[in-house]
Amino acid sequence: MTLPDLNLLVTLDVLLAEGSVARAAERLRLSPSAMSRSLARLREVTGDPLLVRAGRGLVATPRALALREEVSRLVQSAEAVLRPADMLDLEKLERTFTIRASDGFVENFGADLTDRTGREAPGVRLRFVQKPDKESKPLRDGAVDLELGVIGDAAGPELRVQALFRDRFVGVVRAGHPLVGEKVTPAGYAAGRHILVSRRGLEHGPIDAALEPHGLQRQIATTVGTYSAALALARDTDLIAGVPEIYTGKLRAGLDSFPLPVDVTPITISLIWHPRMDADPAHRWLRILVRQICTQRL
Questions:
Q1: pTM, to two decimals
Q2: 133-169: per-residue pLDDT in tens?
Q3: Residues 210, 212, 216, 218, Cα dihedral to 10°
Q4: What's phi and psi for 205, nearest 5 deg?
Q5: What angle (nearest 5°) sits at the alpha carbon of residue 253, between those of residues 250 and 254?
Q6: Which residues of the chain form beta strands (DSSP E)?
Q7: The domain spanning residue 43 has which CATH number?
Q8: Phi, psi torsion values for 63, nearest 5 degrees
Q9: Where does a domain end: 30, 47, 82?
Q10: 260 and 277 co-located in one domain
Q11: pLDDT single digits (tens) 39-69
């Protein structure tokens, strides 16, 4: 199957608009002879003279007149597809963004992000979904527009990653807990009963790794899957939670926090997306918004 030369559509559009081979050639920066050859090709392809001489000028045939509006629309549509994206009009933007994030992000940053989004782009909806793992398939498949959290080993190498902030772990206990007001030592900290946060149900975490050089081991009373669940338990018991400080800022209201007595490797919270969304103006606006919301807490 021989594909048509779509460049001829542009030529025909200009010829019909100008009604002159010379003027059409000048507009397309071609020589008059080259434009005449293009007109000859158009006549051959369409089986119609298209433009015929009348006195010193050219007039369109009935077939050309019937094609003029359709050809103009086709050329304008092609130009719209190939030109850079227009300036984003947030007030007219209607779109739903799916964001994969942990409960901690939604509870700590979600209200500010939703409020800001609603003020700048009333037609935009944010759809937060759970983050049960660190697989990048939902980003590749387009089921998720944006992901927030710690980049994992399972993330695809093609993904775009932008660090938002580094976060240190702190200890958190209820108000009036025996540890409050005391200098917390590694031994005193390890002697308490602890909440381990592990989405995969592991029995060992970064805090445990930091205690090992001191010859210490935490007594794990319970394991939960989210930081919000750990803080909820710490609020009503004598259990000790270890959570990222910035990531859980709002969630720790009414609780007492203290620096951990051992050096725990900080985590980096990142913004993760698929490269096909790089140039999308609306997606870029959302990424900027998330960064601004997060940096307000630093």
A1: 0.67
A2: 667 778 887 889 999 988 765 566 778 999 999 999 9
A3: 60
A4: -135, -175
A5: 170
A6: 51-54, 57-60, 95-100, 124-129, 146-149, 160-167, 169-173, 193-197, 219-224, 240-244, 256-259, 267-273
A7: 1.10.10.10
A8: -65, -40
A9: 82
A10: no
A11: 899 899 889 998 888 877 788 899 988 888 8
